[in-house]
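Open question from group meeting: does this chain pack into something compact, or does most of it stay loose? Before anyone orders reagents, we agreed to write out a predicted structure and look at it together. Recording both the input and the output here so the notebook holds the full record.
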Amino acid sequence: MAKKPMTKAQIVSHFAKQFEISKKMASAIIEEVAALAVSETKKTGSFTLPGIGKLVLVKRKARMGRNPGTGEVIKIPAKTVVKMRIAKAAKEAIVPGKK
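Structure tokens returned:
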């Protein structure tokens, strides 16, 4: 059975203990990094979190698709989505490549 991912409270506690700061300060830092990532991605189209990855806005073109239930051909409109490109160092640290 897989372990559950860390909650925000657990992450805040970890940072508070690691850097010997209050939980309130650790929480404020985490929230500020998240807010900065959102605002910079909106403004410039990308935000890099060193060692982790890069948030990128991607514009998808309009295309033709198919309704899986009826088989009817439908038009899918163009839209902008956010993607996370994982840094090579993080990817290799988590899932080592084959040699």
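Observations to bring back to the group:
The first helix runs from residue 8 to 19.
The two ends are 29 Å apart (CA to CA).
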